[in-house]
Specification:
The complex is a heterotrimer. By secondary structure, chain A is α+β, with helices and mostly antiparallel strands. Chain A is built from 26 helices and twelve strands. Helix content of chain C is 38%, strand content 19%. The chains are: A alpha+beta, B mainly alpha, C alpha/beta. Chain B: It is found in: Cell membrane.
Chain lengths: 654, 410, 427
């Protein structure tokens, strides 16, 4: 009542100063003007009263104001400071709509208006304030907004309106969300202990992050120190003994010192400052200053000073032990009710086992995905290197060419799905042609000189890289996946994998099948195997080794091109894209066993799994994972030089 | 058979004479000692080029003579740089710290000095404690030993593992490349204790030589590099000229046959791999004080591949070929990528060398491997009238690393 | 021919105007030390073009001290040792009067000993990790307190973030920045276990596990925010994975210190709307000076699609300050210009005035922008000018250090012991 009176008074004051304004402010404008300053400042720290005033004004237009404000549609007119909703008419003109009447009151130039840009924090507060209006809104999208706001930030006051909104809810999906939220809010805010415990037990098997987010604050503890025994009536989690692993002696004593329960230890810095402060004619405590570079002499000098009462003495171990013994260290729950914390601890223990299992599953999926990416990058190499024995250092650049083909196609065909459908065969065609050209021009002259092939193809590799840099620049180029590949397959809040990774996995499997089909079931495959084992004999049987080599090499290169499109979709398109994969690809083939596609598959799986495994052991340093992975491979090859699956017999060559 | 080493290898004398003349010429024209025609930065470039020639000689020993295409010798080069760099940084920082602490009222303890050095060196990369690898950084002698010991030990372990399990040919090349990649990734980590991506910097400021201007210092380093190259060259020539040289050439051309003759092929290879790694370490220790900074990017696998390319372009299997290749390619590269080369205007398109040089270089590898396996060194054969053996198209040996008929000398 | 005429005319005019100018060697050479090839070319080539544009503009205005300016461009090719070599070449062979250049910290550390030895002058335009103040370098980019700290404050105050994921590429800038932030967050009452730190290699592309880890941080009911010092290309994979995981800026906001307009042009930003970046400049800043700068840039580069970014503004301010300082000093002599630089003022493109401090760092406002669907930033917060701090206040070893080249004549002065730790800088 007093507030209302104050507002009216303020509105009158405003009227007096702005006698020239065209009309009287409506009730909502009055409320807004009363908080004009904080609204314009738009900071989460100060905005609270303004939002409360609008939401609590009881006016029917409050919801519209808050929604316009949240959507950055609220503008302030500079001439008189009034707030309006504004709609853009053209580049610099806006139509102003009065909040109170809902009528357009004219047009204004952009220069005369200031847009209110509530930041994400303020928008969140607006969303929470809107919940009470939106929970029963006829529009399901608004109701969903309200639930999203509640999931992000809720408070005790919103529990009742949420409960009231469950029964009238017609939409089944929204109703389920509301019921789940009601359980979670009950855990956090219900005044009735039994209801909370019931809710905790009900949600105990749930993997959701939100459930843990509701439970964990209940079991949060703080470490406190007490002189003597821990007093009763406190919800103690556990009592810690100084010197244990959870509470080292030094930490414990530092806590005592900080709480003023014991004198602090004398640090080396204290000693130096004290010594410097007590230099007396070139001596400190009877020790010449020049000798103080010796730590033992420093201790002597300080002890002498302490004996003279000039400085606090060193704390002895006995004193420290005595002080520690005289105190108790305990972790205290913030939540006062032991029944609730007990239930929450029990629920969390059950959840954490499940979370652990699911995390392992998620890690497995990640490893599988990484393995399939390596496999995809290496499968072309499995043909050119594994089957033909040609070292192609430019293999990575073929991958890059495929990715750039995807980028160029996407520039020409804006529809992402269509562009990918075009890009995949085109990338195959481009890299197939490049591969054939390279085989004809360079590689066929070097078939019995693998080391020279390495150098020549490396030359091609750096030339291609630089050529693409010259054409496309060094900036990474966008290659955007279609929307249906955009999201992630979410099993629960712990296990999820993005669709693009699933697509890469499927693609890798398709290529595996294709490879097996070509090698085992087609004439080209038969001829390839024949030429690889004995070119002279194959030639004598009427096979043209040159043609077979050319086609096989083209096939390997073409597959690299398609892999490039996939890798570009999932990561980035730069001229250095190939570099990132070339060494790993060779590793994959070598570790797996040259000449055997199943080996390559196992190699990719091993490398992917290993890398993820090391990452899991040392989550803060991904670089280390790559390093140790390579070292492992080097050592592995020492013991199985022919890879996981070694060819036996004459096919193995030398 | 009783002719002296030099008489059997006249090219060594010629090489030493050319190197000596070159050194004198550069000294006379330098800013520090003479007319000042050559700028200090170019003296440094030349000094660095000589160290690159030294590692190219090592590479030629291991690839051109023994047929091991190592893509890891730049890792050893970088390690040598890191080892000397640790002492240079430590000692330079120690001087600064001691000077600044001298004015404090209480003289610092040894521990305080070390802590302050740590803060100075690692403060830049967000740490302040000395990692264990710096344990000997305060001793020049030990770090100088480590310059050869660390690359040598790494090569010994790696080589022992690899040769023992008979990894040869391209597999060995890929494996050495993997080793290089692992090492550079390891050094990229801040946790490795060698300042991560930043590496060790300010190495051109030699402790206790603050009063010597860089123009003089650069010539001193140039001399040291020339001396190291001369010694390395003579050592390499001596190795390949004796029985040892015959055996490693035999290994290159037909490993199995040498093994059946009773030679310990692994032992020979291991010895050569380790010794060349040590030479690479010395070259690196001379290179980086001239460059001023050593960091993991220097060790990236591509550097080692370039090394192979130098040797290939210069002409493998002959030591002066390696030197020519390293000097020629690195200087020409510097010229073209430095922006001094004039752009060629074709009317519709301007060829900027900065952009197109790398492409030209890449294609030249292809050209050299396809059309001129002897490299630039092959030109000397025309001059001296050496002939290739006529074996009616048959190669010298069946091994993958062996020389082919048209690149061999008779 | 034309050039000689202009030079002649301006020399005569200058001789009439001032005697100091007569002593000037014409033309005045401006060294540009930016990589035009290699990995850093993408970022640095833009800055080289910016410098050429600024030199051209200055010459159109009549040059400096009666002389024409001449830009000397060299290419250090993203090769850190080559930076030192090229810097020496610029100073001794080309005898430039000033150098504008460098991007990465390691390249700056490589150049420092040479610049200090030969008493050159370098303007460094990129945000960096601080902990340095060289007598011969003016830092026109942001120090951590001009970018990282205000952004963290924004997270704490405006977004109510209680748990932080500090993700960075493994090199010196993220390492030092995250160290400073960790210590700052602890001073703000954030517990150590609420700060998650992860480092990834350059160009990292496999982000699924890290994104999953970040999501899992929300399990204890605290609001999570990501502070990203991820560099360059790696951002693309990171943001793609973030979008695929369906994480919106309202759930887990990400503020990036190395993502600007240039980096976003390689990305489809529709899924990133609302994520944040902190800089001292955004192209979307609505001021007449900025509109003019963008127009001049588009005209110079001949491409309307090119964006402007923060380091470009840093060069713009740095170059103009240098011109004004040289004019004030009446010479391009390094020591004279350096003294004239202290207190130099020049208007920012985003409004307000930048002031060069005696610690060789600029005082500039800090802007926070939300990513928009068109790859630009919506500026939602702009602070008062913040003076750059060479030594952070949030690390114990650095808190006692100050830099003051004017009165103390020292870039690393220990206020506790009242001594100058070193005159040269630490590299």
């Amino acid at each position: 009542m007093l507030k209302r009176f104050f507002l009216v008074l303020l509105a009158m004051l405003l009227l007096a100063t702005q006698a020239f304004a065209q009309s009287e402010p409506g009730p909502m404008q009055t409320v807004l003007q009363a908080h004009a300053e904080v609204i314009a400042e738009s900071s989460r720290r100060t905005i609270g009263p303004a939002i409360d005033a609008v939401a609590g004004s009881g006016l029917p237009q409050a919801q519209a104001v808050l929604e316009a404000w949240q959507a950055k549609d609220m503008w302030q007119r500079q001439s008189d400071g009034w707030f309006f909703r504004a709609e853009q008419i053209d580049a610099s003109t806006y139509r102003l709509i009065d909040f109170d009447s809902g009528d357009a009151i004219g047009e204004a130039d952009k220069g005369d208006l200031t847009q209110l840009k509530p930041n994400a924090g303020v928008r969140g507060l607006l969303g929470t304030a809107l919940v009470q209006f939106q929970l029963l809104d006829p529009d399901p999208a608004r109701r969903a907004d309200a639930l999203t706001s509640l999931e992000r930030s809720a408070n005790a006051d919103l529990l009742a309106p949420l409960r009231a909104s469950i029964d009238p809810e017609a939409d089944a999906a929204l109703k389920a969300r509301k019921e789940r939220l009601e359980r979670l809010l009950t855990i956090s805010y219900d005044p009735d202990e039994a209801a909370r415990i019931a809710a905790i037990e009900e949600m105990a098997g749930d993997l959701g992050v939100d459930v843990r987010a509701a439970l964990n604050p209940l079991v949060a503890t703080t470490l406190r120190v007490y002189a003597g025994e821990v007093p009763g009536g406190i919800n103690v989690a556990r009592v810690l003994r100084p010197g244990s692993e959870a509470l080292p002696r030094d930490t414990a004593y530092a806590m005592l010192a900080e709480a003023g329960l014991a004198p602090p230890r004398v640090t080396e810095g204290d000693v130096r400052a004290a010594l410097a402060a007590h230099i007396d004619a070139g001596n400190v405590g009877g020790v010449p200053v020049a000798e103080l570079s010796d730590p033992a002499r420093r201790v002597g000098a300080y002890t002498a000073l302490a004996a003279g009462g000039l400085v606090p003495a060193y704390r002895t171990e006995a004193e420290i032990s005595a002080a520690l013994d005289a105190h108790r260290f305990a972790q205290i729950y913030a939540e006062p009710s032991p029944a609730v914390t007990g239930a929450a601890e029990a629920a969390l223990t059950r959840i954490s086992t499940k979370v652990g299992l699911n995390q392992a599953l998620d890690l497995g999926l990640d490893a599988l995905s990484l393995g399939s990416i390596y496999f995809l990058a290496a499968i072309g190499l499995a043909i050119t290197f594994g089957v033909m024995g040609v070292i192609n250092m430019a293999h990575g650049e073929f991958i890059m060419m495929g990715a750039y083909t995807g980028y160029v196609v996407q520039q020409l065909i804006p529809n992402h799905t269509a562009s990918i459908a075009v890009a995949i065969p085109l990338a195959f065609a481009v890299t197939f042609a490049a591969g054939v050209a390279m085989e004809r021009l360079v590689i066929r002259w070097l078939y019995n000189r693998p080391l020279e092939t390495l150098l020549a193809t490396f030359g091609i590799s750096i030339a291609l890289q630089q050529l693409f840099k010259n054409i496309f620049g060094t900036q990474a180029r966008p290659l955007t996946s279609p929307d249906w590949l955009g999201g992630a397959w979410v099993l629960n809040d712990v296990v999820s994998i993005s669709y693009i990774r699933i697509a890469i996995f499927v693609l890798a499997m398709l290529f595996l099948a294709l490879f097996l089909f070509i090698m085992k079931r087609t004439r080209l495959g038969l001829e390839t195997r024949a030429v690889t084992q004995n070119p002279g004999m194959a030639g004598a049987m009427g096979i043209n080794p040159g043609r077979v080599n050319m086609l096989t090499f083209g096939l390997g290169s073409g597959i690299a091109g398609i892999a490039g499109v996939a890798i570009g979709l999932f990561a980035k398109v730069t001229s250095e894209l190939g570099q990132d994969y070339i060494v790993q690809s060779f590793m994959t083939v070598v570790v797996g066993g040259v000449g055997n596609i199943w080996g390559t598959l196992l190699g990719a799986g091993l490398i992917g799994g290993l890398q993820k495994g090391i990452e899991w052991l040392n989550p803060s340093n991904t670089l280390a994972a790559q390093t140790y992975m390579i070292i492992f491979i080097i050592v592995f090859i020492q013991f199985r030089p022919r890879g996981i699956i070694a060819l036996k017999g004459r096919a193995a060559g030398d | 058979m009783n002719r002296t080493f030099l008489a059997r290898n006249p090219s060594v004398l010629i090489f030493l004479a050319v190197l000596a003349l070159f050194t004198i010429a550069v000294t006379v024209m330098s800013e520090g000692f003479g007319m000042g025609i050559i700028s200090t930065s170019f003296v440094k470039t030349l000094g660095k080029t000589l160290t690159l020639a030294l590692i190219a000689v090592a590479m030629d020993l291991v690839w051109g003579y023994a047929g091991i295409l190592s893509l890891g010798h730049f890792a050893f080069f970088g390690l040598g740089g890191y080892m000397i760099g640790m002492w240079l940084m430590y000692e330079r920082t120690r001087q600064i710290v001691v000077d600044s602490l001298a004015s404090s009222p209480i003289p610092p303890t040894d521990q305080e000095v070390v802590d302050a050095i740590g803060t100075q060196i690692f403060g830049v990369v967000g740490s302040s404690e000395f990692p264990p690898v710096w344990a000997f950084a305060d001793s020049l002698t030990i770090q100088l030993i480590l310059v050869v010991a660390v690359p040598g030990l790494l090569a010994l372990i790696f080589g022992w593992l690899a040769f023992r399990s008979r990894v040869t040919g391209v597999y060995l090349s890929i494996l050495t490349q993997a080793m290089t990649l692992a090492l550079s990734l390891y050094l990229f980590q801040n946790d490795s204790g060698l300042r991560g991506n930043n590496g060790l910097s300010g190495l051109q400021n030699i402790p206790h030589l603050d009063h010597v201007p860089q123009s003089v210092l650069s010539v001193w380093f140039f001399w040291a590099s020339a001396l190291a190259l001369a010694l390395g060259y003579v050592f390499a020539a001596w190795i390949v000229s004796g029985k040892f040289g015959s055996v490693i050439r035999g290994i290159r051309d037909n490993e199995a046959r040498v093994r059946f003759l009773g030679y310990s092929v692994e032992g020979y290879k291991l010895f050569l791999f380790t010794v060349t790694a040590m030479i690479a370490g010395i070259a690196g220790a001379l290179y980086y004080p001239q460059a001023g900074i050593v960091n993991p990017a220097e060790i990236a696998p591509i550097a080692s591949i370039y090394l192979a390319v130098w040797v290939a372009i210069g002409g493998r299997g002959r030591l002066y070929g390696a030197v020519i290749g390293a000097v020629f390619v690195s200087l020409v590269s510097t010229y073209f990528t430095g922006g001094q080369a004039p752009d060629i205007n074709l009317g519709f398109y301007t060829i900027s060398w900065v952009d197109w040089w790398t492409i030209l270089l890449g294609l030249s590898f292809v050209g050299v491997t396809l059309f001129a396996p002897k490299g630039i060194g092959g030109l000397f054969d025309l001059w001296t009238g050496r002939r290739t053996p006529d074996r009616h198209g048959a190669d010298l040996g069946p091994d993958m690393g062996s020389l082919r008929e048209k690149e061999a000398e008779e | 021919m034309n050039f000689i005429k202009t030079a002649l005319v301006s020399t005569v005019a200058a001789a009439a105007m001032s005697t100091a100018a007569a002593a000037q060697d014409c033309p005045i050479k401006v060294g540009v030390l930016h990589s035009l090839s290699g990995t850093m070319a993408i970022s640095e080539t833009t800055l080289k073009d910016t410098m050429l544009m600024l030199v051209e503009q200055q010459n159109a205005k009549g040059g400096l001290l009666g002389c024409d300016l001449e830009a000397v461009v060299v290419d250090p090719a993203s090769d850190w040792p080559l930076f030192a070599e090229k810097a020496r070449e610029l100073l001794t062979v080309h005898e430039v009067d000033v150098i504008f250049g460098n991007w990465t910290s390691v390249s700056r550390k490589s150049v420092l000993p040479v610049i200090e030895e030969l008493n050159g002058l370098l303007f460094y335009p990129v945000q960096y990790e601080g902990e340095e103040s060289s007598k011969n370098v003016f830092y026109t980019g942001a120090a951590p307190n001009q970018q990282a700290i205000p952004a963290t404050d924004y997270f704490l105050d405006e977004l109510g973030v209680e748990k932080f994921a500090l993700l960075g590429t493994d090199y010196v800038y993220p390492r030092t920045t995250n160290n400073i932030l960790e210590s700052y967050l602890k001073s703000k009452g954030i517990a150590e276990e609420d700060i998650f730190v992860n480092y990834t290699p350059f160009g990292h592309s496999d982000w699924s596990k890290i994104v999953a880890d970040v999501v899992a941080l929300g399990a204890d009911g605290k609001k999570v925010g990501v502070i990203s010092t991820i560099n360059g290309d790696a951002n693309i994979g990171f943001y793609k994975e973030l979008a695929a995981a369906g994480i919106s800026a309202d759930d887990i906001p990400v503020v990036a210190f190395s993502v600007g307009e240039e980096e976003l042009s390689g990305l489809d930003t529709s899924n990133l709307v609302g994520h944040l970046a902190a800089w001292n400049y955004f192209m979307s800043a609505d001021t007449p000076a900025n509109a003019e700068f963008i127009a001049a840039w588009h005209e110079f580069i001949g491409d309307e699609a090119r964006v402007t970014n923060d380091p470009m503004e840093a060069h713009y301010i740095g170059f103009n300050m240098w011109v004004n300082a040289a004019t004030a000093a009446g010479s391009t002599d390094v020591d004279a210009v350096r003294e004239a630089m202290w207190g130099q003022e020049f208007p920012n493109l985003t409004g307000g005035t930048a002031v060069m401090g005696v610690n060789h760092h600029l005082s500039k406002p800090v802007l926070i922008g939300e990513i928009l669907a068109d790859g630009q930033f919506d500026i939602i917060s702009q602070t008062e000018p913040v003076p750059g701090d060479a030594w952070t206040d949030f690390l114990p070893e650095s808190a006692v250090l100050v830099s003051d080249w004017k009165d103390l004549g020292c870039g690393m002065y220990n206020t506790e012991t009242e001594t100058c730790v070193q005159i040269g800088s630490n590299y």
